[in-house]
Amino acid sequence: MKYIDNTDVMKRMKSRLKLNKVWKTVFLAATGLALLTLVILLVRIVSQGAGYLNWDFFNNFGSRFPDKAGIKAALIGSIYLMLVIAPVSIILGVGTAIYLEEYAKKNKFTRFIQMNISNLAGVPSIVFGLLGLTIFVRMFLLGKSILAAGFTMSLLILPVIIVAAQEAIRAVPKEQREASYGMGATKWQTITRVVLPAAIPGILTGSILALSRAVGETAPLVVLGIPVILQFLPDGLLSQFTTLPLQIYDWAKRPQEEFQFVAAAGIIVLMIFLILMNSIAIMIRNKFQKRY
Predict the structure, then answer these.
(1) Digitized pLDDT (tens) for each residue of the chain, 292 residues in all
(2) 56-290 has CATH 1.10.3720.10 classification
(3) Nearest CA among 45, 98, 77, 86 for reference residue 267
(4) Residue 239 burial (C-beta neighbours within 10 Å; 0-12, 13-18, 19+)
(5) At what angle are helices 146-170 and 72-98 packed, to 10 degrees?
(6) CB 97 within 8 A of CB 169
(7) 78 touches 244 (CB < 8 A)
(8) Residue extents of the structural domains in the chain
């Protein structure tokens, strides 16, 4: 039996350790560059927009004068839009995931459906805007309303929620299902009382990311023809509205330098809105993680 050459082993170990240090340095530099870019953006946004964050900014409507421009209509419109997007997308997405994982037969047709759902998650958002314009605005005559925009944005994030919900449901151990069946529970009782509660943390994680994308999207709303500046608040789901990303986009493209500072203030409000929305979802997720 030939003995192992320790010299050769040590040489190989040294080369591997050197290569490991090189890649570690590269990855650390990439991470540091990304964090540095983020810090620079945050510092610039806060330094430019903090001075415009006052009561008048939240209480005024849009204006062509920077000192009178406010975000009231856009903020309320974004809240109305999320009240449509969240229930529609989560109910349809989770329901589809339950059917595909628990009820649908595993054959070529279901694999074809799942493949197309995964592909839809990578489709550019402007394509969904064209789809919403054709179906909801023109075919169903919903106009430039909250419902039309909400349904369009729900289609945009629906594939992400379906895929995330499928992964979360698939991760629930089969032993828990079998134990429920052994206690005499029906399939629906097992899904609602065993599978879904255990899968809620994963479902909410995907939903948080999807809803965050919907809040920050602008392209589909531009295609739908949603107005940028409004001087009134929406009075229902069929009313016209505007959103924070649209308002920020309009301010950022204006030539006056003051509007760049107003846009920065709007970005701060949008970030706070996203943080609050995500915090609520994370609290719900953590609550279920402790129980299951």
Answers:
(1) 455 667 776 777 888 888 899 999 999 999 999 999 999 999 999 998 888 888 888 888 888 888 888 899 899 999 999 999 999 999 999 999 999 998 888 888 888 888 888 888 888 889 999 999 999 999 998 888 999 999 999 999 999 999 999 999 998 888 888 888 888 888 898 998 889 888 888 888 888 888 888 888 888 998 998 888 788 888 888 888 999 999 998 888 888 888 889 999 999 998 888 888 778 777 777 776 655 5
(2) yes
(3) 45
(4) middle
(5) 40
(6) yes
(7) yes
(8) 6-52, 56-290
Token pair listed for 64: 């062509």
Identity (one letter) of the amino acid at 2? K
How far is residue 175's CA from residue 180's CA, in Å, rounded to a whole number? 9
Q: Are 242 and 226 in contact (CB under 8 A)?
A: yes
Q: DSSP for 205-220, please give it.
A: HHHHHHHHHHHH--HH
CA dihedral of 212, 218, 221, 222, whole degrees rounded to 10: 180
Q: Tokens in use for 206?
A: 């995907």
Q: How many CB atoms lie within 10 A of CB 5?
A: 9
> Cα separation of 110 and 92, whole Å?
17
Other beta carbons within 10 Å of 167: 16
pTM: 0.84
